[in-house]
Write a structure and sequence with these properties.
Order of helices and strands: HHHH
Number of strands: 0
């Protein structure tokens, strides 16, 4: 079954934002902005408005990046699970009961981990 490679607008935005903000140039730009802000402190007398500008900007950007990063992580994680499930199905020695194990409770996952450790040790 061939799936269309359509990506939603937010997914496309989140991918682009994660790619751009994860680049060294973005970190350099952020450093330069902070440096300019810090150097401008004496010019503005370290006023409340001067402090409010950086506090507001960083808070808003951090808040928005949480959603961008979470979206990217969720899609990457789901893609990884789909790929692993495909490998499990394609391998004769693998147990199919492991397919979809990311949806199990932590208790059940701990039990499966213990079983795997016992089998590896014997």
């Amino acid at each position: 079954m061939d799936h269309e490679r359509k990506v939603g607008r937010f997914d496309a935005f989140a991918s682009a934002a994660a790619r751009i903000t994860g680049h060294a140039a973005a970190a350099t730009a952020a450093f330069v902005i902070i440096l300019v802000w810090a150097v401008s402190g004496p010019i503005f007398g370290f006023s409340d408005t001067w402090q409010l500008i950086i506090n507001t900007a960083t808070t808003v950007l951090t808040f928005l990046m949480v959603f961008v990063i979470q979206n990217t992580i969720n899609r990457d994680s789901l893609a990884m699970h789909v790929k692993l499930d495909e490998l499990i199905r394609a391998t004769d020695e693998a147990r199919n009961r492991m397919i979809g194990s990311e949806k199990l409770s932590e208790t059940v996952l701990d039990e499966l981990e213990h079983e795997e450790e016992e089998e590896a040790g014997s």
